[in-house]
Amino acid sequence: MALTLTREKAQPAIVLRSPGYWQGVLARLSRDRIAMIALIVVALLILMAILAPYLAPDDPTRGSLARRLKPLGTPGHVLGTDELGRDMLSRLIWGARLSLVMGVVPVPVAFVLGSAIGIIAGYAGGLTNSIIMRTVDVFYAFPSVLLAVALSGTLGSGLTNALVSLTVVFIPQIARVAESVTTQVHRLDYVEAARASGAGSLAIVRVHILGNVLAPIFVFSTSLISVSMILAAGLSFLGLGVRPPDAEWGLMLNTLRTAIYINPTIAALPGVMIFITSIAFNLFSDGLRNAMDVKT
Amino acid sequence: MQTPPAIIDIRNLAVTFRGGSRKVRAVNGVDLTVDRGEVLALLGESGSGKSVTLRSLLRLHPKGTLIEGEIKVAGQDVMRLGRRALADLRGGTVSMIFQEPRLALDPVYRVGDQIVETIRRHMPVSRSEARARALRLFEDVRIPSPESRLGNYPHEMSGGMLQRSMIAMALACDPAILLADEPTTALDATVQIQILLLLRELQTRRGLAVVFVTHDIGVAAQVADKVAVMYAGRIVESGHIADVIHNPRHPYTQGLLDARVELAQGSSRLRTIEGAPPDLSALPPGCAFAPRCGRVAETCRTVVPELHSGSTSVACFEPLRG
Amino acid sequence: MSLDLGGPAQPLLTVQGLVKHFPVKGSGLMRRRVVRAVDGIDFKVKKGETLGVVGESGCGKSTTARLIMKLLDPDSGTVLFDGQKLGHELELSAYRRQVQMVFQDSYASLNPRLTIEESIAFAPRIHGVTARAATERAHALLNRVGLDPGRFAGRYPHELSGGQRQRVNIARALALEPRLVILDEAVSALDKSVEAQVLNLLLDLKDEFGLTYIFISHDLNVVRFLCDRVMVMYLGKAAEIGDTEAIYERPGHPYSKALLASMPKANPAERMDEPPLAGDPPNPIDPPSGCRFHPRCALAEPVCSQSEPPLLQLGGDHEAACLANMSGSGHSLAPSRAP
Fold it and tell me: What transmembrane ranges does the database entry give (chain A) (predicted)?
């Protein structure tokens, strides 16, 4: 019967390959000027954080009461000094380390956990879906700031606890997105066709679901990095994140708060850094979304 | 004696979409006239440019679309109309019905209110007058218990009922021209024929000029006086519907007619047109049908044939004897 | 491989008393309303034949397909495949290898992130074929459905035309070497000239691989061309079943007659004046009592709203469910009782 198929071996020498989806995304992304500039800014910030010991002109924790709150352009302290006389430039450079860690780390962790939760719920459907998603909704119902503060407050201050609470804040958000795209894809004919050919759940999820849902979840997650940056800064500002005297932009904003009437430009500097970083991540994630969102 | 001017007169229409870096020539030099009270079917497959041609009559294209040529509708130069005049034309003199009434009607308003709104936008009448008019329209399109149906939301109506409502709305301001874009394609067979007969009846009673876009020869045969067959953005053959169906002169028209399954009863295979329509962003230099044509000659591959009139007009260097 | 068990006389598929109701969302707590999508149908598909299933939206033809494919679980009813009861004598995974489906939407039925060859090779891979052999089979199938593997195997669905994609879907359905292929409006979305090409292909493949088809369609012309037998469905029930020519020449149910008369003839001289059938297909949530067709039927009499007609033999295996054909039904047109 159908075994004729294997007999007429039609093995062509060359199979024309179309560029894959991700190649297309990269190509489109590289043509997006704004996204590329944002990417360069992000790369520079990361580089700055890594090379902090070599770039910083001064020790970020060594202060001197004699040179408190020096203005911009002071010889030896280009960006002035803070309320304890520490060199602002050095603190901003060193601050990038903790700020970036706090801003960036929770998102990939939440991406993995949230996607898993959402995809399971979306694929299983029915009662399992209801149980998982209603639990997720309980967390989602709180405003993210409130939830982050409440969690950090309960866990106590410190970098790790801040990271944990930020991750917990993002999991429900990512899970909801993951659940809705999975439910959508799950209904498509090609998933039905795969079921009809006897494929098990694991194979269907791996081959047909993941490839089609991870991209939109990923885009949504990258947009959370900027939120995470701001929340992390907020936690530190409230004293729930990094402890002094470590340099972190949110914490610096807090300690400089008292100096706002004396030297407002210095007090604003950490804010500017937070702003630049968060905008850069945001623009890059926008570009990524545009590059991925093609009507194929 | 002078013949009255055609109510629709299109000359050398070309429509180009710019999608990214590619330019897609959806319509590529179309001449078309429709007289008052006449039904013209634009027949073609997907990508033939039939819908795009139809939409050009109201300039309903997305931004960035290049429209060239002359379009005269009811004495007005559509290409030169300002925003206001264009809005008056749409739904006033010319109205349109679509394949998916569900997308054309607003889901959050009652159908009756939407018709009343349409009437009041184009005519200086009171609310109650508009209401009475809407009721008469619902009776005209044979909606049972029209009074209560006016109060329905779109989701409360079946597909056939919605299409009737949309026809009522299209006729609300006594248009002279009705444009129909595959209005029965999404309907069930028994409902499709009801809507076709309704359209024909309303057309005759009101003396409407109708341009009816369809891919279905059977549907065209049921409603149209004349037919224009389109392929790759050009009209390849046009004439009276009976002439074109019984004596096709263009090889493509003949291919389409031959491919009909109802002709193949008893035989084991269908006659087909081999190959596929050309890429509209890279049209061949000559006749667009040449690569698929059984009668192809040297000239066909280099020169675009013009539409020559005869008993039917045909754009072909080697037409079949009609 | 898959063996022919019962010989040619044994039906390949026997469906008995198939029922599927869907709960209506947002219906009251007290009385749960249901859509009676499929409401008790019986039919057989003979080996090597093509059974057409026709009817309008809401008649249950697509639900029937999904029930046969086991993509949905029926509320009741049994499916026998080559005499073996599904779920008892025949395991689902073995059944799935032998029954495949082609869907209407050629785009939605292909994973946009997989190349054509990956899509076709997926099912064989699941069933333990090596990657190399599965790819080879995919290429051979592409060749067979008229697509040059060198040009198409490495491409993505969005780069193909509708007709080409549907050829890929057909190749994909054949990759497991099934015996029964369900074609759910598989050519309905295609342009007429492409449709003709795909129909020819389906005929050739059927001969070559000894396939049996269930062909679901709303296009009666296509069904007449392709199918040996036809089942006409109305609101979850079979209105008529029989040989194609018998039904098209002598429809035994008023609905089949009206449906056939509704097809527009491609001849302007044969224009209709009156629609053969008034009204819209009713909602399967609350189907009419008695014969479900009676509110739209030209032959309807009071008795039609009271008793539900069974499928009645008209000759050969031509059956129709109409009281006007049933002697002693109380319908005025019913034949008098045979002596």
Answer: 34-56, 98-125, 145-171, 213-240, 260-284
